[in-house]
């Protein structure tokens, strides 16, 4: 079954690690999943298996890179291909202090020519898709000019897709968290971009909370990317393949999902990991259902013990099991 950019789970620092992606893949076969941003220097010089390793179950999977040196980004992209990633994405949207100090991420919105050069270097280095994720602008930039300029540059350089977080980023005065909420969303700006690039993939990201909203956007753009909504309420992924792709299959059995995650957690613990590395991504699974509060409490407290194993997950699931089965 093919995986499509029509629907994606956004790259999110400290969240979309390999355990999160394994969990999400149990609920959607079709969504494109993204890694956390990996800085090009780290991919080249760091512990590659720890930074880039993943389970084959996670496919199809895209690697997001951060950086502004075309040569290093090309080398990091080649490393990503060697690991088996299906797509390489360049981060041109993150406003964190870390990326500002390295002059990449959202800072690159100010230097669209450099972004185009980086894309061209990555395209020449690999034979898989190279994509870009950006904002509509930064600081005092005019989004009409800034976004069009960036889009023309990266598409002319060979970018296979452009994902747009439909907010500006303010590099001074707002924290990364505030940059996800305070700058107003401007979906119409992304729609106008798509109208000007009819033959190129334009995807939208930012503040999208439900599959109904996603379907509305898909009338205007090529793809929808969910971030925090998919993370904090991962249960919505259970219906994504049917709602967004028209897939017909047996409903996901929640008890089987829990068994799979218990087996996965025990394998991770046996290899030296901690249960909480896995369960921290599962806390929102039963959002809005009876028993969800106890599920969250048990995973948040008991899973952090040094000797915790999958029995904690089963204990927590016992608080919601019948309700979950009925909902599924």
UniProtKB/TrEMBL annotation:
Catalyzed reactions per annotation: 5,6-dihydrouridine(20) in tRNA + NAD(+) = uridine(20) in tRNA + NADH + H(+); 5,6-dihydrouridine(20a) in tRNA + NAD(+) = uridine(20a) in tRNA + NADH + H(+); 5,6-dihydrouridine(20) in tRNA + NADP(+) = uridine(20) in tRNA + NADPH + H(+); 5,6-dihydrouridine(20a) in tRNA + NADP(+) = uridine(20a) in tRNA + NADPH + H(+)
The enzyme's E.C. designation: 1.3.1.91
Cofactor: FMN
Keywords, sorted A to Z: Flavoprotein, FMN, NADP, Nucleotide-binding, Oxidoreductase, RNA-binding, tRNA processing, tRNA-binding
EC supergroup of this enzyme: oxidoreductase
Gene3D superfamilies attached to this UniProt entry: 1.20.120.1460, Aldolase class I (3.20.20.70)
Pfam (any one): Dus
CDD domains noted in UniProt: DUS_like_FMN
Site entry: Interacts with tRNA: 91, 177, 180, 293, 296
Single Gene Ontology MF annotation: flavin adenine dinucleotide binding
Family to which this protein belongs: Belongs to the Dus family. DusA subfamily.
Function field: Catalyzes the synthesis of 5,6-dihydrouridine (D), a modified base found in the D-loop of most tRNAs, via the reduction of the C5-C6 double bond in target uridines. Specifically modifies U20 and U20a in tRNAs.
PANTHER family, per database record: FMN-LINKED OXIDOREDUCTASES SUPERFAMILY PROTEIN (PTHR42907:SF1)
Name of the protein described by the UniProt record: tRNA-dihydrouridine(20/20a) synthase
Species of provenance: Phyllobacterium phragmitis
Lineage, highest ranks first: Bacteria, Pseudomonadati, Pseudomonadota, Alphaproteobacteria, Hyphomicrobiales
């Amino acid at each position: 079954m093919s995986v499509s950019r029509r629907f994606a789970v956004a790259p999110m620092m400290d969240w979309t690690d390999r355990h999160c992606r394994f969990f999400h893949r149990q609920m959607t076969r079709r969504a494109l999943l993204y890694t956390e941003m990996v800085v090009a220097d780290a991919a080249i010089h760091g512990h590659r298996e720890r930074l880039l390793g993943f389970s084959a179950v996670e496919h199809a999977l895209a690697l997001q890179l951060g950086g502004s040196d075309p040569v290093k980004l090309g080398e990091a992209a080649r490393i990503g291909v060697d690991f088996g990633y299906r797509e390489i994405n360049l981060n041109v949207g993150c406003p964190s202090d870390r990326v500002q100090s390295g002059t990449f991420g959202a800072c690159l919105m100010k230097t669209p020519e450099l972004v185009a050069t980086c894309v061209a270097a990555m395209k020449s280095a690999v034979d898989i898709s190279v994509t870009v994720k950006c904002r509509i602008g930064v600081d005092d930039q005019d989004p009409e000019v800034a976004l069009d300029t960036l889009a023309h540059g990266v598409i002319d350089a060979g970018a296979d897709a452009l994902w747009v977080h439909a907010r500006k980023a303010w590099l001074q005065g707002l924290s990364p968290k505030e940059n996800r909420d305070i700058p107003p969303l401007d979906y119409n700006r992304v729609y106008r971009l798509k109208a000007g690039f009819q033959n190129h993939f334009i995807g939208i990201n930012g503040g999208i909370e439900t599959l109904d909203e996603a379907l509305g956007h898909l009338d205007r753009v090529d793809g929808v990317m969910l971030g925090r909504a998919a993370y904090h309420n991962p249960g919505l992924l259970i219906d994504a393949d049917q709602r967004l792709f028209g897939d017909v299959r047996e409903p996901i059995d929640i008890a089987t999902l829990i068994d799979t995650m218990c087996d996965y957690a025990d394998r991770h613990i046996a290899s030296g990991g901690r249960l909480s590395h896995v369960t921290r991504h599962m806390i929102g699974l039963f959002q809005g259902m009876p028993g969800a509060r106890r599920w969250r409490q048990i995973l948040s407290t008991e899973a952090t013990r040094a000797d915790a194993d999958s029995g904690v997950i089963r204990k927590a699931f016992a608080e919601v099991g019948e309700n979950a089965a009925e909902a599924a």
